[in-house]
Amino acid sequence: MNLLDLCRTGVVIGDGAMGTELQRAGLAVGECGDRWNLERPDRILSIHTAYIEAGSQAIVTNSFGANRWVLDRYGLADRVAAVNRAAATIAGQAAGAAVCVLGDIGPCGGFLRPLGAIDAGDLQAEFTVQAAALLEGGASGIIIETMSAIDELCIAIRAAAAARAPFIVASMAFDRVPNGNIRTMMGVSPEQAARAAVEAGADVVGANCGTHMTAADFERVTGAFRQTTDRPIMIQSNAGSPDLVDGRAVYRLSPEAFADGMKGVAAAGANIVGGCCGTTPAHIAALARLLTTGA
Ligand SMILES: [Zn+2]
Fold first, then answer.
1. What is the pTM of this model?
2. Distance CA 8, CA 4 (A)
3. How far is the CA of 278 from the centre of ligand 1 (A)?
């Protein structure tokens, strides 16, 4: 299932969070969620299945941190391809033919030179390995998400293109800064992000996560994207701003309030709407209900 074809049929419903659902399924703080593709595929499969039953038309693989740098922290640096292939295979088992599987690429967790020690060529090669393994495992296309740096975003887009991804979603994590503007942690505006992403080869531009982002902020981002490009727009919001409880972020926005906010974001022009941190199958079910029946 190609996401771009799906977008031509109307507003597409994405899925909710994977990370916070893994914690609910028993993943300990500091444990590697991506390892569960190899060791607990049944639990990943049930999370995907719950989202599809809730109404998700596009689901995201459990491979957010499955790049060499993040996996290295858990002694899995030599398993990058295996972890990603497994992530896509599990999502495909849940999806069948009717649901689009987005192969997930998250940030490498470090900074590119000269800010940090990571070489741009290495990064592109590693993201290409990740994207290729996701596609080999059956992902319909690639989503690059929660990016803050525009150079890392563009490198990941070029890597996905090098791996011959049928479509590429490029999504950055914005937040509202004290002067009221919306920027990524690295100071990138929605307009800059959309322009650079499309130039690098993205088919869909997006925004996800963001600690202090409200639905109204995402409507602003959607408007800024639309002024910059006519490509489809994907918005995945958190379930509100988190409270820190025993070292863990707790998200309290109700499924109904989340659905209501995302309905507004869709009305502002977003083509694909879903959830990020703290959203659950109940949030997606409420969103699907509201978008399909208006209740
Ligand atoms: Zn998030």
1. 0.97
2. 7
3. 7
Nearest by Cα to 51 from 9, 12, 16: 16
Which residue carries 């640096």 as its tokens? 77
Give the distance (Å) from ligand 1 centre to CA of residue 17: 7
Q: What is the pLDDT of residues 91-125, one digit of tens each?
A: 999 998 999 999 999 999 999 999 999 999 999 99
Dihedral (C-alpha) 45, 51, 52, 55: value to the nearest 10 degrees? 180
* CA 286–ligand 1 middle distance (angstroms): 19
**Hey, is 141 helix, strand or coil?**
strand
CA of 15 to the centre of ligand 1 (A): 12
48-91 pLDDT, tens digit per residue, is: 999 999 999 999 999 999 999 999 999 999 999 999 999 999 99
- Distance from Cα 277 to the centre of ligand 1, integer Å: 4
Distance CA 171, CA 142 (A): 11
Q: Record the tokens describing residue 279, joined without a space.
A: 């959203």
CA of 139 to the centre of ligand 1 (A): 21
What are the tokens at 172? 């950055």
Residues lying with their CB under 5 A of ligand 1, a single-atom ion: 209, 238, 276-277
Which residues make Cβ contacts (< 8 Å) with residue 292, sequence separation at least 6? 55
- Is 239 within 8 Å of 274 (Cβ atoms)? no
With b for 16 or more beta-carbon neighbours within 10 A and e for fewer, the 38-52 pattern comes to: eebbebbbebbbbbb
